[in-house]
Amino acid sequence: MLEEYNNIFEQFEIKVKNGYKGRGAYILDTNKGLKLFKEIRMHREKIKFMYEIEEYLYKKGFTNIDRLTMSRDKNPFCEDDGTIYIMKNWVNGREIFFNDEEEIYDSVKNLAVLHKCGSNFPIGSKYKNYVKLGSLPNKLNRHNIELVRIRNKIRKMGKWSEFDICFLSSFNYYYKKAVEALSLIELSEYNNLVNGYHKSNVITHGQYIHHNILVSNKKLHTMNFEYCNIDIPVIDLYRLMRKVLEKNDWNIGLGIEAIEKYISINPLSKEELDILLYLIMYPEKFWKISNYYFNLNRAWKPKQSLIKLNKLINQKEKKERFIRELKKTLSSK
């Protein structure tokens, strides 16, 4: 099976001993260590940006990452018959456990170190497309518009599924939360924060969740920088915290302690913590489930979508309690 890629391996100047197929990729044992090899649908410019991001982090001391392998023509990818392939360093490890407090705290501290090492990245005009600073309000506004569009389409349908009924019955609550959170961000110091971060150009991972944080030899390894960009770092922290809190039933002590662990390494201003609060308030999971179910294929995996929506609704009061406690904690800072 791997023989068909021999010409690609030669371009990467790698000799493959053996390998096996994983999730959409091959894990290879090579003369230059363990590698991950896969086809990728990404603009060449973005792959180069990802390569420079990883090299910058590595040189700044953030070394446990899946650095891309350069080809003999000095590109961090290879092409064959119009298909683009990448190869990168890999480790034998497992995803962190989101039910393990210490691993959660370690992952939060690791993110803080990433952001500290990733400051002052030299953008240059060629990578301006990957500067996402200032894009948050527009993104959330699009989500809100999509929620209304989904509601209106469901209302017009003659026959409703269980998911449709559940969505409609909970829509007003979540849409109100979405509008409130967006309004708070628009009234906040967000734009001033953006202006400040335009000067420091901090690297954000973009998808810093358990799937991309591996434990190997008792060390954390940060993988898969495909969604990396330049943005305010608290957005990375929010993504991680939302996943952690959802999987731990909005545990107040765990969530606030995790945020404190981050701040102890990479301090955040009152204005940044406000943005974190407003992002947590925003019902992104409601939008995500609804958008996925309705826009991709309403008939595909309807039971799983309904289960996820019901779980979200069942956690509603616990999330509200967490937000109240987080507000109290932040107001005392």
What do we call the CATH homologous superfamily of the largest domain? Aminoglycoside phosphotransferase (APH), C-terminal lobe
| Count of structural domains | 2
Proportion of strand residues: 5-15%
Number of strands: 10
Poorly predicted tracts of residues: none
Note the gap between the termini: 58 Å
Main β-sheet description: 5 strands, antiparallel
Helix/strand order, N-terminal first: HEEEHEEEHHHHEEEEHHHHHH
Structure description:
The chain has twelve helices and ten strands. Strands 1-2-3-5-4 form a five-stranded antiparallel beta sheet. Strands 6-8-9 form a three-stranded antiparallel beta sheet, covered by helices on one side. Helix 7 (234-247) packs antiparallel against helix 8. It starts with 5 loop residues before the first helix and ends with a helix. With 333 residues, the chain is α+β, with helices and mostly antiparallel strands. The model has no long low-confidence stretch (mean pLDDT 94). It has helices spanning 6-11, 44-59, 101-117, 136-156, 162-187, 190-200, 234-247, 252-265, 270-281, 284-296, 302-314, 316-331; strands at residues 16-21, 26-30, 33-39, 78-80, 83-89, 94-95, 203-204, 213-216, 219-222, 229-230. The chain has two domains: 2-90, Phosphorylase Kinase, domain 1 (2-Layer Sandwich); 101-331, Alpha-Beta Complex (Aminoglycoside 3'-phosphotransferase, Chain: A, domain 2), CATH 3.90.1200.
Helices and strands in order, then pairings?
Elements: H1 6-11, E1 16-21, E2 26-30, E3 33-39, H2 44-59, E4 78-80, E5 83-89, E6 94-95, H3 101-117, H4 136-156, H5 162-187, H6 190-200, E7 203-204, E8 213-216, E9 219-222, E10 229-230, H7 234-247, H8 252-265, H9 270-281, H10 284-296, H11 302-314, H12 316-331
Antiparallel strand pairs: 1-2, 2-3, 3-5, 4-5, 6-8, 7-10, 8-9
Helix pairs in contact: 3-7, 3-8, 4-5, 4-10, 5-9, 5-11, 7-8, 7-9, 9-12, 10-11
